[in-house]
Design a protein that fits this description.
Distance between the termini: 18 Å
Largest sheet: 5 strands, antiparallel
Strand order of the largest sheet: 6-7-13-11-12
Strand content: 25-35%
Low-confidence stretches: none
Shape: globular
CATH architecture of the largest domain: 2-Layer Sandwich
Number of strands: 19
Radius of gyration: 20 Å
Bound molecules: flavin-adenine dinucleotide
Number of domains: 3
Length: 308
C-alpha cells in the first residue's frame, strides 16, 4: 500500500479533537470491493460537538470527505488525500417518534434500521434490509430497491457543513433523483427523521423475506463488489445494455463482470481498483459503440491512482 508521506505533518496542522485522528489509515479491508489505498488522515469524531468544532477550525485549504459503509465507492489505489471522516457510535442512536416515525443516526446500517422498524411494527422499511449501506449513504445516494426509494420515507435530515453549523433540511429541498440528491460532498448527514406507517410484524417479516429471496436469486451477494456499477437509463436497464453489448463475463486483471448480474463488477480476489475502473471504462465504451447509449457510473470512484 502506498503511504501518504506528509500524513503526520497534516495531523500536526489540525485542531486536536477528542475523537481519533489516524494518519495513513487503510481503507481496502473495510470497503465492499476490498480494493484501494489509504486515507491520508482518518477522523473518527467523538460526538457531534467534536465534529462541529473540528470542521469549524479546519483550514480552508484542507479537503475532506465522509464515508459510510463503503458499499458504493471504488477507492482508487493510491487512496484519498486530506481527511476522511467516519461517523461511529455517537451517530448510531435510533428511536421511535410519535408511534410511526423513526429518528436514526446516520452511521446506522440500513439493515439495522429495517430490523428496528420490524421490531416496532413500523412498515415501509423492508427494502432497506437488502441494501448494505448506512443511513447517511442512503440519503446521499437516494438508495432504493424494489420500487421504493429513500425519498419516499424521509421527512428531514440534519446536516453539518464545512463551517461546523448544523441545520435541518426537509425532503422537498434535497432534490432527490434516481440515486442522487443535492447534498454537497463536504456536507455530512448526521441524523434522519423517517415517516413509516403502523403495520403488523408478520406482514413486514413476510415482505422482508420475499425481498431477500428475490435478491438472492438475482444478485451475487457473497462477492466483493460495489453493487450496481451503472445507473439504469430511461429506456433500458444498465444490465440489459451490458448484456446486449456482449460484456457478460468480460474481465480486466482480477476484476470481472458478474455472470449472475452483469451490472455487478466482481473483485475475484486479487483485483486492484485500477482493474475495476478499467473494466468499467471498457464496458462504457463497448455499450456506447453497440447501442449508442453512454452509461453513467452509479458507483463513486474516489481518490487517486495510477493512470488508466
Ligand atoms: C451487494 C450490494 C448491493 C447493493 N444494492 C443496492 C440497492 O439495491 N439499491 C441501492 O440504492 N444501492 C445498492 N447498493 C449500493 C450501496 O449500498 C448504496 O448506495 C448505499 O446507500 C451506500 O451507502 P454507504 O454507507 O455504503 O455509502 P458509501 O459507499 O460509504 O458512500 C457513498 C456516498 O455517500 C456519501 N456518504 C456516506 N455517508 C454519508 C453521510 N453520513 N453524509 C453524507 N454523505 C455520505 C459518501 O461520501 C459517498 O459519496 C448495493 C451495494 C452492494 C455492495
Amino acid at each position: 500500500m502506498k503511504l501518504w508521506p506528509n500524513a503526520d505533518l497534516l495531523v500536526d496542522k489540525l485542531y486536536k479533537p477528542s475523537g481519533r485522528l489516524i494518519p495513513n489509515y487503510p481503507l481496502a479491508s473495510s470497503s465492499w470491493f476490498r480494493v484501494g489505498g489509504a486515507a491520508e488522515v482518518m477522523f473518527f469524531p467523538e460526538d457531534e460537538h467534536d465534529l462541529a468544532i473540528f470542521l469549524e477550525k479546519l483550514p480552508n485549504d484542507i479537503n475532506y470527505c465522509v464515508l459510510g459503509n463503503k458499499s458504493n465507492v471504488l477507492i482508487r489505489d493510491y487512496g484519498i488525500s486530506g481527511i476522511v471522516i467516519s461517523l461511529g457510535k455517537a451517530f448510531s442512536k435510533i428511536e421511535v417518534v410519535d408511534g410511526d416515525k423513526i429518528l436514526s443516526g446516520c452511521s446506522v446500517l440500513d439493515k439495522k434500521l429495517s430490523s428496528f422498524a420490524l421490531q416496532n411494527n413500523i412498515g415501509g422499511f423492508s427494502f432497506y434490509n437488502s441494501i448494505p449501506g448506512s443511513v447517511g449513504g442512503a440519503i446521499k445516494m437516494n438508495a432504493g430497491a424494489f420500487g421504493q426509494e429513500t425519498k419516499d420515507l424521509l421527512i428531514e435530515v440534519t446536516l453539518i457543513d464545512r463551517s461546523g453549523i448544523t441545520y435541518n433540511v426537509k425532503n422537498s429541498l434535497l432534490d432527490f433523483k434516481y440515486r442522487s440528491s443535492n447534498i454537497a460532498n463536504e456536507t455530512l448527514c448526521l441524523s434522519a427523521l423517517y415517516q413509516g406507517y403502523h403495520s403488523q410484524y408478520h406482514r413486514i417479516y413476510d415482505e422482508m423475506i420475499s425481498i431477500k429471496n428475490l435478491r438472492n436469486n438475482s444478485q451475487p451477494l457473497r462477492e466483493k463488489t460495489g453493487g450496481s456499477t451503472f445507473k439504469n437509463t430511461k429506456h433500458k436497464k444498465a444490465w440489459e445494455l451490458i448484456e446486449l453489448s456482449g460484456c457478460r463475463g468480460l474481465s480486466v486483471g482480477g476484476a470481472s463482470v458478474s455472470r449472475k448480474h452483469c451490472n455487478f463488477i466482481i473483485n475475484n480476489g486479487n483485483a486492484t481498483a485500477r482493474d475495476v475502473e478499467s473494466l468499467g471504462k471498457l464496458i462504457i465504451s463497448k455499450v456506447k459503440s453497440v447501442t449508442g447509449i453512454k452509461l453513467e457510473w452509479e458507483i463513486k470512484c474516489i481518490g487517486s491512482g495510477p493512470e488508466i
